[in-house]
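Input sequence (280 aa), recorded before submission:
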Amino acid sequence: MNALPAMAPRYWPARLRLGFSDRAGETLLSERWHQGPLRVQRPFYPESRQVCHVYLLHPPGGLVSGDELCIDIDVGRDAWALLTTPGAGKVYCSDGQGVRQQQTLRIARGGTLEWLPQEMILFEGARAELATRVELEDEARFLGWEISCLGRPASNEPLRHGDLRQRFELWRDGRPLWLERSHYRDQSPVFEAAWGLRGHSVIGTLVCSPVPEGVAVALRDALPPGDDALFAITQRDGVLLVRYLGDSAEQARSRLGAAWHWLRQEVLGRTAVLPRIWNC
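Predicted structure, token format:
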């Protein structure tokens, strides 16, 4: 009797490397390499040839045990790129192995990167490690956000069992500007404590650097009145942080989106143009 063929592993690692370069004021997607189910189709220019919009596509639609995604972005000197995703990312229940997603974003002197992925949803029982590292050269600019949903509160499915490790690092010329590490796991007091999530399930952070003095105060004055969510704006050493803590991914996108609109005009010097994929 012939032996049965070996079954392929269920997990599906994927890698994507993109490079952007400036040519006489036009930003080109000059490098594009992928392995596995992570890719882009083509660049878009909804506002001008100076700003290149790209949508990161992950056809499986979610991550399962053992999956690993690695994203490498290089924005060259004086280039300007805006990256987003067509929908929310998802991490499904783990059967033992966790998932890993790592992003390394490099911006050269005079370059600009807007990093605006839609939210990452962790289903009950999910185990994940999510890491982002931003490396800026002198006079490079970064404006981006990340939103995490611990469970699905709208469907009455909170994350009661799971493990999320998050890391975000912002560096300029080899010097750390902001380093943050978070760990949310089974039975941790962080879910309910006043110093933690206070019973909320959606966390959002927007980062902008560099920013001139006084931007935090001006942004607070410019944004509409708050709601029942917790919302904070802080500024230190040329880095602006906008924080959201609540129970609605839509509310998080709206609040952080309002900050992005204002910062793009007042700090980056361009009127905000929504990526077309957000309207689908």
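Checked by second reader. Confidence is low (pLDDT under 50) at residues 1-8.
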